[in-house]
């Protein structure tokens, strides 16, 4: 008799370790002591409040230590008197533009298209969205850099804000990349550096 | 009771066997060995650079007495570096002598890179302390620490890494300073 008990125990343990099982139920964890701890982490359920969220939004107007945002051109794309900044307030390097390209292709290209012509995958599928404008018309080519930053941060008309998910520095990187995209559509031979032009003509 | 013990042993063996993972792969040690050789060679090259650095630092200290403690500090790191380079050779031989022991190879590679990084960090601390003393304006070119976590939503750490990649190497700071001073 004890042999049956031991074999049963052994089989049970082995089966509990099987990961190949497909089940729609939560898997069996024999020891749940510390799996779900009596504290809340970010994005967890909190039954105490009406909205049952563990993350409590801060009171409007609070300022975190180290985030005073005194540098208004950098944080808001506006000068102290509220006008949009003409030029990007950070140094534009090839690395910044490369980072901007990466971020643009993640967040922006779905609607605005990788070429910036407003032909992203969402716009080509007849889903009933308001068409995204092309970046290559005169209005957007001549607009201030700060305006583009403002649109990313807070949205405009039918476009939602992206400020809550794109860091401030990345927003400027995206602006730099959009500027590069705009330049690409209106490039002339004189924009190409001498040595590269010779290469292009050679081919 | 005896049978129970046997079953218990079987259980332990089963659990033990199911917990076994093989992290290496055939021929993996040879590849790791190549990386180990590259890492220890880099450490030896950096030792030569550090020797050139300390020579410059001694020359600077001859003119400015306040730099003497920094020379002593630099020397002690240099001694640790010399010992480390010898030890790396020894560790490398151990890996060569155990061609089937991939765990030893991985551990050795990790130990060499970690110790090398720590030495570079120590050099950097002394060198930038000298820079602070000699020419405070150069401090702007020192590598920047990644800011607090809450600041990541303003400046992701990737940007700081990019800036630091272009900073002066810790083993060239003193010579760069000397060149700046003329």
TrEMBL record, chain A:
User: rRNA-binding: present as a keyword of the record?
Assistant: no
Q: Does the keyword Heme apply?
A: yes
Q: Which UniProt keywords apply?
A: Heme, Iron, Metal-binding
Limits of the Cytochrome c domain: 95-182
MF terms in GO? electron transfer activity; heme binding; metal ion binding
Q: Which InterPro entries match?
A: Cyt_c-like_dom, Cyt_c-like_dom_sf
Q: Which Pfam families match?
A: Cytochrome_CBB3
Query: What domain of life?
Result: Bacteria
Which residues, if any, are the signal sequence?
none
Name under which the protein is recorded: Quinol:cytochrome c oxidoreductase monoheme cytochrome subunit
Q: What is the lineage of its organism?
A: Bacteria, Pseudomonadati, Rhodothermota, Rhodothermia, Rhodothermales
Automatic annotation (TrEMBL), chain B:
User: Superkingdom of this entry's organism?
Assistant: Bacteria
- Name it: Uncharacterized protein
- Residues annotated as coiled-coil are 33-67
Is Coiled coil a UniProt keyword of this protein?
yes
Query: Which of UniProt's keywords are assigned here?
Result: Coiled coil
